[in-house]
Write a structure and sequence with these properties.
With 101 residues, this protein is α+β, with helices and mostly antiparallel strands. Helix content is 22%, strand content 40%. It is built from two helices and six strands, in the order E-H-E-E-E-E-H-E.
């Protein structure tokens, strides 16, 4: 079993800080935020210009034993039934260099 997991959360723009606050409250140390855009059913027309929903992708490497609690808290604070409309998943991290123990 891997010692770490990568928790990836995709939220509406402006909600990445909510994700990080939730994760930190359950033991996460930090994360990386990337900007993105939605592609499924999110295109709107405004003055004949196509607009796509802006997204933020939050990637957090966490200890395996903290993963579930962190994901539960993110879901509570920024999940699909919140204004952030977040979806999240995790992947095992087989090897990591440079992470603090």
């Amino acid at each position: 079993m891997a010692d770490f997991d990568l928790v990836i959360t995709i939220v509406n723009r402006g909600h990445a800080d909510t994700v990080m606050e939730a994760a930190r409250s359950k033991g996460a140390k930090g994360g990386t935020i990337l900007n993105g855009r939605g592609t499924v059913g999110e295109v709107e027309k405004f003055f004949n210009i196509s607009l796509q929903a802006e997204k933020e992708i939050v990637m957090i490497v966490v200890r395996h034993d903290l993963r579930h609690a962190i994901m539960e808290e993110i879901t509570l604070k920024a999940g699909i039934r919140t204004p952030g409309q977040g979806v999240l998943f995790s992947l095992p991290v087989e090897e990591a260099i440079g992470l603090a123990k």
